[in-house]
Amino acid sequence: MAEIRIQVAEEVDRYLESAVSMGLFTNKAEIARAAIVQYMSTIMQMSKGYDNEVMFSPEGRLYQLEYARCATSRGLTTIGIACTDGVVIASETALQSAPGDGDASKSLMVPYEKVVRIGESVIVGSSGLVMDGHLVMDALRKAKFHSDSELLSSVRETYKPYLYSRDVRPLGIGLVMGSVLDGAHLFQVDPSGAIMEFRATAIGRGKDEAAKALSVKHKPMNVSDGEALARELLAGRDVQVVSLECPKRGRK
Within 99-206, where are the H helices? Predict the structure, then answer.
């Protein structure tokens, strides 16, 4: 075994002597070896890269967040359209077999709802990791909101804990939310919790193609026409279409 000789300050040497006298270590060399092992373990962990935690790389990138966005881009295509009298969200649906069951179990499975209602005024479509989607939906069902600003605040608060803790990873789920709380509004939610409003948008594996078609075909339209457009863009696939109309306000 190689021999290493080091010099330490007197106060450090006294501390090492006291650690040995208390029986924590058999000698000062053992303490030095333990310190070196701990140091190297820390260095090796850091050397694995900035993608092990939600931390900035020297270039200012958050790799874990980029990986979360990749998860959303692999999900089924979901389209949202803001209409003159409401909102429409449509998504591909696909039955997936349980692991190891092959295709035989598909006929026995209940179709999975990709677009869900949150109360009477909000609908949400998602793309990404299914369990992360359930987590967000459960949190929104428990939240109390009566306006778009309160809704968006609830969404941000749901995503926030997964961006500022070393013990968790960012949520791998993107959302398209339609709301009629304050008129017809459509929002897209990034895994970072950032929210943007759109007249029409798409997420998932077919988002580029769908967004290109929306940019050409979208125009002011009612909910009925919005549903027809969504079905047209997802033609040839099993589709779930959910819409909400703005509440009719009575005259005084």
Answer: 130-142, 148-159
End-to-end CA distance of the chain: 93
**Where in 22-77 does DSSP place strands (E)?**
none
In tens, the pLDDT along 28-77 reads 777 777 777 676 665 444 445 556 666 777 777 788 888 899 999 999 99
Residue 35 lies in domain: 10-47
Residue partners of 194: CB distance under 8 A and separation at least 6: none
- The edge-to-edge listing of strands for the beta sheet with 78-82 is 200-203, 78-82, 86-92, 239-245
3-state secondary structure of 217: helix
Residue type, position 4, single letter: I
CATH code of the domain covering residue 74:
3.60.20.10
If asked whether residues 208 and 86 sit together in one domain, one would say yes
Separation between Cα atoms, residue 182 and residue 203, nearest integer Å: 24
Helices vs strands, H then E, count in the chain: 7, 9
Query: Which residue reads 């969504």 in tokens?
Result: 230
At which residue do the structure tokens 């939906």 appear? Answer: 137
- Cα gap 138→24, rounded to integer Å: 49
Which tens digits make up the pLDDT trace of 215-241? 999 999 999 999 999 999 999 888 999
